[in-house]
Design brief:
15% strand
């Protein structure tokens, strides 16, 4: 029998991972985001370039992790989240899209 996992638990773990990665690679400078789990055809995830979610008086970006890819190893899901976080940094700092991914992070073991 296939084991089921609550979506809320997965989202909670991804939010925890976001906070840890934010502290480790971005010095905690990224804003809080909404992490969603929706099927994304042709992608492991995506980032919304506008703050599309309302949380009280605050607006937030969305990072989606494709629900169709959650069976991948956790390291790969973590890499997808980190990649989407770089888009968040670019949006916050207004980096141009042509800058390379590695320029957005210090040299690391990623």
């Amino acid at each position: 029998m296939k084991k089921t996992v609550k979506t809320s638990r997965v989202a909670g773990q991804l939010e925890k991972m976001y906070r840890l990665l934010n502290a480790r690679f971005f010095n905690g400078e990224l804003p809080e985001v909404v992490i969603s789990l929706k099927k994304t055809v042709g992608a492991y995830g995506h980032f919304t370039c506008n703050k599309v979610w309302q949380a009280g008086d605050e607006r937030r970006y969305e990072i989606n992790i494709s629900s169709a890819t959650l069976s991948r190893p956790i390291e790969e899901t973590c890499a997808t989240l980190l990649h989407e976080m770089c888009h968040c940094l670019a949006a916050e700092k207004r980096y141009q899209r042509y800058q390379r991914f590695r320029e957005l992070l210090p040299q690391s073991e990623v």
